[in-house]
Input
Amino acid sequence: MRHGKKINHLSRKSQHRHATLSNMAASLIFHKRINTTLAKAKALKKYFEPIISRSKSDTTHSRRMVFRYLQNKDAVITLFRDIAPKVGERNGGYTRILKTGFRLGDNANTCFIELVDFNENMLAAKTTGAAPSRKTRRSRGGKKKEASSSDKTSEENATN
Output
């Protein structure tokens, strides 16, 4: 039984799992959005969010610690140069998981995992105010108008 064990082993040995997550994190840095299975995306989210938090402070020590996880110089440079300034004021929640359905071959649950501040479509919708406007519920009011118009006509008849 696996009571209290929070890490998803992804059916891999530890070295293979770390290499997989490291490669997926580097791909996420380069492409800003990747398509994968839901289990891998959730594991990647736990692996990647602390890396982004560390990249907010651009020091030699933090660069070395990030390189320790990513093992890719270009990914570290891109992370500190492009991504860290954009997420500097965000306190967490740097990634978003969007479920896309099931894979045809093995029926695995697939999804996109993306960096929140780099989705151009959602950012464009937010800046233009294209959010759906809320409509207030209103009654038809037909009876009130008829009653008020009939009251006016009865008042006019009474005065004549």
About this structure: The radius of gyration is 28 Å. Residues 101 and 107 are 9 Å apart (CA to CA). The mean pLDDT is 88. The helical segments are 14-31, 38-55, 60-70, 73-86, 120-128, 142-159.
